[in-house]
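Course assignment 3, question 2. Fill in each field.
Student: A.L.
Task: Predict the tertiary structure for the chain below.
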Amino acid sequence: MSDDQELVTAVLARTPGAFEQLIARHKALVWHVVYRMVKHPEDARELSQDVFLRVHQRLHQYRFESSLATWIGRVAFSVASRHLQKKRLPLAEPASDEDGDALDDVSDGFDLEAACADRETMDHLNAAIEALPPLQRTLVTLYHLDEMGIAEIGTITGLPEGTVKNYLFRARQRLRQRLETRLGAIA
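Answer field:
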């Protein structure tokens, strides 16, 4: 039995401390997804609690078709998305036709890791990431900082892989433009 199965079984059996263990194991992911979308600490704290309440209420529906982290990430994304919809905040910008076939390849030759080599660049990059629309900001951080794959991000967000690639491509273009504007051309 996998760790996920053991933990889910223990939580469903109401084993003392099991749900607390689930929270401890996944609270960083939940916070990361929720905060990157809503960008407001108080809202993010409240929504993170809502995520774990929903996880507790619906854990019996988890079917082990993906990792428990992916399933919980999906719940977090859903809760944060609904919050943005209620506040009438756009989740993403409308797609433009100028992206073309370039979206088939997420990589555009821009080396994000190299661009973060020094502190000043990192500060500018963080500011540029924070300025992205909620969905792009979340996808960039899941892909580059949490090192999740396109398929897993698609599962969490409920977006097709091509759409994830599209948003990542456009977000990386924006980040490159902002960094080039602030720091000059990046080789």
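Instructor remarks: The CA atoms of residues 62 and 71 lie 8 Å apart. The chain has a mean pLDDT of 83.
Grade: pending
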